[in-house]
Amino acid sequence: MSQFTQISFSDAVKKVQSLAGSRTAMQRLAEHPNKRDRLSDDIMEFVRARTSAYIATASASGQPYIQHRGGDAGFLKVVNDTTIMISERPGNRQYITQGNLDENPNAMLFLMDYANRRRVKIWGEAFISFDQNLNTIMDGPDDRTPRPVIVFKVKAWDENCPKHIPRLYGEDVIKGLADRIQDLEMGMVTMGS
Predict the structure, then answer these.
(1) What is the reported pTM?
(2) Where does 2-95 have alpha helices with state H?
(3) From CA 166, how far away is CA 38, in angstroms rounded?
(4) Whole-angstrom Cα Rg for the chain
(5) Rounded to 5 degrees, what are φ and ψ at 187?
(6) Which among 27, 88, 110, 190 counts the fewest CB atoms within 10 Å?
(7) How is the chain split into domains, by residue range?
(8) Who's near 125: CB < 8 A, 6+ residues apart?
(9) How many C-beta neighbours within 10 Å does residue 156 have?
(10) φ, ψ at 6 (rounded to 5°)
């Protein structure tokens, strides 16, 4: 049985699915033999390639919060098929994510690949670690700046359809296209001379 449907399809969600006419299809999804409680090789590669991610947490009273995280590809460190680590970088110093995780470990990663119109949701439990050994794993032995690490333990994952994902491209793609246009224009100028 699908682990993500056990987590996300509460009785209230099932009621709405019934009213909307999708409950039968969602029941088939729930009965799918792939539990999706461990990251597949494809999903691990997808996670490693991200340069941007959203982490959702909630306080003990249920107040939701979503925080953006970003960095070079690999800033989300896939330790294995059930563990992802994220180095906490200085930001606006509100520490809402850390505070929420201190009182409520339930968390979600929401990962987008706009260029390829793909999104992956990962449910789990997370905690903050100040273990310097994890900091070394994340940032290498030369980085002596102590900083916390979010350790995210995967419970389930799911992938959405691309229907309403806008196609957006990163700066690297745009720069490559601009360079190509410039090369083509220079070639035309040379040919016309």
Answers:
(1) 0.84
(2) 3-8, 11-20, 23-30, 41-49
(3) 28
(4) 21
(5) -65, -40
(6) 190
(7) 1-34, 36-192
(8) 105, 106, 107, 152, 153, 155
(9) 20
(10) -65, -40
Q: How far apart are the first and last CA of the chain?
A: 69
Q: What is the pLDDT of residues 70-122, one digit of tens each?
A: 989 999 999 999 999 998 777 778 889 999 999 999 999 999 999 899 999 99
**For 34-46, what is the mean pLDDT?**
94
Name all contacts of 178-183 with Cβ < 8 Å and 24+ positions apart.
none
Q: Residue 118: what are its φ and ψ, rounded to 5°?
A: -135, 140
If one compares 85 and 30, the residue with the highest pLDDT of the two is 85
**Residue 108 tokens, joined:** 């979600």
Distance CA 152, CA 79 (A): 10
CATH architecture, domain 36-192: Roll (2.30)
Rounded to the nearest 5 degrees, what angle is found at the Cα of 72, between the Cα atoms of 52 and 75?
75
Whether 120 and 157 have beta carbons less than 8 Å apart is answered as: yes
Collect all residues with Cβ–Cβ distance below 8 Å to 14 and sequence separation of at least 6.
23, 26
